Amino acid sequence: MTGVAFGERAAYLGRHDALVVADLHVGRGEASTVSLPVGEREDLADRLAGLVRRFDPETAVVAGDVVHTFDRVTDRSLGTLAALRDVCEANGTALELVAGNHDTALASAWDGPVREEYVLGPADGDPTAPRTVVCHGHEAPSAAGDRYVTGHVHPTIEIEGDRRPCFLRGEAVHRGADLLMLPAFTRLAPGVAVNDMRTGAFDSPLVADADRLAPVVVDPDTGDAGEPLRFPPLGEFRELL
Fold this sequence. Notes:
There is one protein chain. By secondary structure, the chain is α/β, with parallel strands linked by helices. It has a single domain (4-240), classed as Purple Acid Phosphatase, chain A, domain 2 (4-Layer Sandwich). It is 18% helix and 27% strand. It is built from four helices and 16 strands. Helix 1 runs parallel beside helix 2. It is globular and about 50 Å long.
């Protein structure tokens, strides 16, 4: 899968000049007794700002589950989303929101568009770039693409008792198209260990053969200097553990 640079819980699609994150679950801190060392808003905004500075993307796309609660979006959550938009706009980056299964109330509360999916086509100067569809992954997208970028599952891998957020990538795994699944951007979600998960457990119609999905882990301690850790596909990876 070419043209993808991995950041901490984010992917940069260089041929589209687009940064993609998924599963912010804004407002989860309000609904939980668990708190981060800093507030939810500051944590999300600071980490997004670091990614925007690093990659300087034209567009930043949130691939669904932008907010956490299904029935309403609180003023505090809207303030956090506005702060994230300010981070992007300060860099000249457009922020695009894609709806996930949690986002049933988002379109009526947010003052910008909320899309069912976001299509990244061939970029200026790169007419051969793949057609990439960014969607949440809880249901099949209506748009056809050469590559799908999703969230929804919150994948992690567990190695010697240590659970780490991971990406899952596979070539020609959904209707002949590539698939890139992102970990949750929020650090309040524990994530789902995919080590022993079979296809049906992923609860996503885009996962037709989980054994062909290969984990990628970014070590947050190494920053930009560290290379992502790439593992064999899950069908082989299970045999190594």
